[in-house]
Amino acid sequence: MEANQVIEKILSDARAEAEKIKEKAQEKEAAEQAKIDERLTEYNKQTETLAQKAAEDKKLHLLAAVRMQVAKELLTEKRKILDEVFSQAREQLLKLPDEKYRQLMINLMLKAVETGDEQVIVDKNEKRIDRQLIDQVNQQLRSKSKDHLTLSEERQDLGGGFILKRGKIKNNVSIEVLISQTRRGLEIELAKELFEK
Predict the structure, then answer these.
(1) Is the Cβ–Cβ distance between 79 and 86 less than 8 Å?
(2) Which tens digit of pLDDT belongs to each residue from 128-163?
(3) Across 21-168, where does the E strand assignment appear?
(4) Is the pTM of this model over 0.90?
(5) How far apart (Å, rounded) are the C-alpha atoms in residues 108 and 113?
(6) How many angstroms separate the Cα of 9 from the Cα of each of 13, 17, 18?
(7) How many helices (DSSP H) and strands (DSSP E) are in the chain?
(8) At a CB cut-off of 8 Å and minimum separation 6, what does 70 contact?
(9) Strand order in the sheet with 119-123
(10) Long-range CB contacts (within 8 A, 24+) of 95-103
(11) Mind listing the pLDDT tens digit for each residue in 51-99?
């Protein structure tokens, strides 16, 4: 063999070996690229899932905030309605015909009396709760031996209704207190509505 042929053989073998190395490198590169593409696809899926979850969380948060705001506005409106209703109720109670008002006060007094020896304090302008009314209540309490109510000389700004006083103990049965207690119960119900949603 001539030197040229030997060189050509060596070059041919080197080219074949280089081609094999190149093919292996390309295969390895393709495999690595496939792994990278797979990882990138998985990363994109995870990113999309996280983005969707974040968007859903934000949407839920916004919806909750909107619901809370609507509930607050509704509560405010309900309170305005309550203000009006209780204002009208107060007016209607005070404007009851004398006989109905007196009967209401007798019923309230009969329920509120504890010992029967209380003093009855009324509003400064009260004309319908008088000694005659107290006598009627005492007549009904007589069977229970609680018939010693007296009309106090003391007068207060009650706006209607009365206070039963025995020593330092006072039982306030004024129209304001009755309306306030009723209102408090309704406001508790409204608050429950707001926070249960």
Answers:
(1) no
(2) 999 999 999 999 988 888 878 999 999 999 888 999
(3) 119-123, 150-156, 161-166
(4) no
(5) 9
(6) 6, 12, 14
(7) 4, 4
(8) none
(9) 150-156, 119-123, 161-166, 169-174
(10) 98/128, 101/128, 102/128, 102/129, 102/133
(11) 888 888 888 888 888 888 887 887 788 778 878 877 888 888 888 899 9
